[in-house]
TrEMBL record:
Protein name according to UniProt: site-specific DNA-methyltransferase (adenine-specific)
Pfam families recorded: Methylase_S, N6_Mtase
Recorded GO MF terms: methyltransferase activity
Organism: Succinivibrio faecicola
Domain DNA methylase adenine-specific: 230-370
Key words of the record: DNA-binding, Methyltransferase, Restriction system, S-adenosyl-L-methionine, Transferase
Annotated Type I restriction modification DNA specificity domain residues: 427-553
Family indicated by similarity: Belongs to the N(4)/N(6)-methyltransferase family.
EC number: 2.1.1.72
Length: 556
């Protein structure tokens, strides 16, 4: 197929609007049926019969049929789009149309994952940094899934060599070849070729490798890709990996991060929002590597994970598009102008932090810096573990017999930090190990998994409440402190910032229990103890009054 036949297709794919893709698909399919003299109904009225025919011909899923059929409820809009596409496309024969239809079947049915998406703003700016104003470059895209990065970097490249892992040869490969003249190898045995990298063969590169994949030798694939690119590319390159790469506590991963930092080639790290790579709930980071001869003693940390960097109009549930503000922060930072979400961090400081490479731990907001400053300025304080008994709740198991208990979870805690009536029940015998999770009055529970940092105060006698494994039970033992005072300390703005700084995780967040144990609670005064007790009792009284009024209202 000639490039001119795909101009409109390229624009639609770049738009990432599934309705437009579906409309274009429908237009192609109808044109195909016209040319085959198989159109069963009028083009200007009802498309449903044609869709049914297409569904059988191309083996559509029910979801795909529903999505396309939903578009037929708006015939004017659909027909206008169709006529526009007809006007701009040149189809010479059935084979050309059928090839296009097959490509769209893969795009719409999910065979070609939307991780091949075109986040044009960030990838364009990043590609400009990679190419550094040069042209006629040899570009390397091993196992890349980001279409726009290939597109923008490829504009300056004379060689585009793509190795992309995929056990199914999807039609997205044909699309890339047609649009960008890229040579693609989708064979699984491409893994083995990574070990035969040509030293200093390429000028620039970009990769978004498959996530969470391990090779037969148990090596983590992201590490292998980065090592391969480091060997093969003499100029700049970038690689997008899960953010877990930055903080994974495995010795092997920490050692690899240390190797990258000490190479002094790692120039910058950008923390991206969850959903940046479409189709995955993982948060990701972009690693930016400098020229081979680089000697970077500092690494630029850029945190773009905040929701304020989301373009609401262009973002979908399946992917998160960065707005112009985010691109300005990134663009300014790599040119030397740093905002509050950027920080140049020395490799010595990174080493002191166990080679943690997550930008949000370094590029702190002004508010976060102020909160941490307050903690450090406490005149006297004690660690939480020194003033309280702390127990990490274990997984509960329903014995199916015995006494009925209520299990407290995060959803049972209201916005003020109190539990009124948990709903999940289970039966436990007196011998059950789950009884170690039993709660008592004046306990404080703190979530260290999932909804990290959720805190609740148990304000009443509860003979049959237990807590689930996401929580730590905190039972104040130091008489100089009161449960109400510790509860208020743990729900303060300073504590929330401390939690945000140390929480980690790609999909399910977690907070290290050691960090909770080491959290410093400011020594109380007589006045602060009285104030904490008074405020807590006042909250309890108000919530009780609200509950009574709700009950009365329901009975009227």
């Amino acid at each position: 197929m000639k490039r001119s036949h795909l101009l409109d297709f390229e624009a639609l794919v770049s738009s990432l609007d599934r309705k437009e893709l579906s409309t274009f698909f429908l237009a192609c399919t109808i044109e195909l049926l016209h040319k085959k003299n198989e159109l069963s109904s009028s083009l200007d009225s009802d498309f449903s019969n044609d869709i049914s025919k297409c569904a059988k011909l191309y083996n559509f899923s029910k979801e795909m049929c529903s999505e396309i059929l939903s578009l037929t409820k708006l015939p004017n809009s659909l027909m206008n789009s169709y006529k526009e596409i007809k006007k701009n496309c040149e189809w010479d024969n059935c084979e050309q149309i059928e090839e296009t239809v097959n490509r769209l079947v893969d795009l719409l049915s999910g065979k070609a994952s939307f991780s091949h998406f075109s986040e044009y703003r960030f990838s364009k700016t990043l590609s400009e940094w990679v190419c550094d104003g040069k042209s006629n470059l040899k570009a390397y895209f091993p196992y890349n899934n980001l279409v726009e990065a290939v597109r923008y970097t490829g504009k300056n490249a004379k060689v585009n060599d793509v190795l992309r892992y995929n056990p199914i040869n999807t039609t997205i490969d044909n699309l890339l070849m047609a649009l960008f003249d890229i040579s693609i190898n989708t064979k699984i045995e491409g893994f083995d070729k990574l070990s035969d990298a040509k030293v200093d063969f390429y000028d620039v590169g970009f990769s978004v490798p498959p996530f969470g994949l391990k090779l037969e030798n148990r090596e983590i694939f992201e590490n292998t890709i980065i090592e391969n690119m480091t060997t093969s590319i003499k100029g700049r390159f970038a690689c997008i990996v899960p953010s877990g790469f930055a903080f994974n506590s495995l010795v092997k991963q920490k050692n690899y991060r240390e190797k990258l930092v000490k190479s002094k080639r790692l120039a910058a790290i950008v923390e991206l929002p969850i959903g940046y790579i479409a189709g995955t709930g993982l948060s990701t980071i972009a690693l930016l590597f400098d020229y081979k001869e680089a000697n970077n003693n500092d690494i630029l940390m850029i945190d773009l994970s905040d929701s304020k960097y989301k373009d609401e109009q262009l973002s979908f549930r399946s992917n998160f598009v960065l707005n112009e503000s985010a691109i300005k922060v990134f663009s300014d930072a790599i040119k030397g102008t740093l905002s509050s979400k950027c920080e140049k961090v020395s490799i010595d400081k990174i080493a002191a932090n166990d080679y943690l490479l997550l930008p949000s731990r370094y590029a702190l907001s002004d508010e976060m810096k102020e909160s941490l400053k307050k903690i450090n300025e406490y005149k006297s304080s004690k660690t939480l573990s020194s003033i309280a008994f702390m127990y990490r709740a274990q997984a509960t198991a329903n014995d199916g017999d015995g006494k009925e208990y209520y299990e407290v979870g995060a959803s049972d805690i209201n916005e003020y930090g109190f539990v009124s009536a948990p709903t999940k029940t289970l039966l436990l015998t007196p011998q059950s190990s789950s009884l170690k999770n039993k709660l008592q009055k004046n306990d404080i529970i703190f979530s260290i998994k999932g909804t990290v940092g959720k805190v609740a105060f148990i304000d009443k006698v509860v003979d049959n409440w237990i807590v689930n494994q996401s929580f730590v039970i905190i039972r104040v033992t130091d008489e100089a402190y009161t449960p109400e005072y510790v509860f208020k300390q743990l729900t303060s703005k300073v504590t929330k910032d401390y939690i945000a700084l140390h929480a980690a995780g790609n999909v399910i967040k977690s907070f290290p229990i050691d960090k909770l144990k080491d959290f410093r609670v400011q020594d109380p005064t007589k006045e602060s103890l009285c104030a904490a007790k008074e405020k807590t009792q006042r909250q309890i009284k108000i919530l009780k009054a609200i509950e009574d009024l709700k009950k009365e209202l329901s009975e009227i």
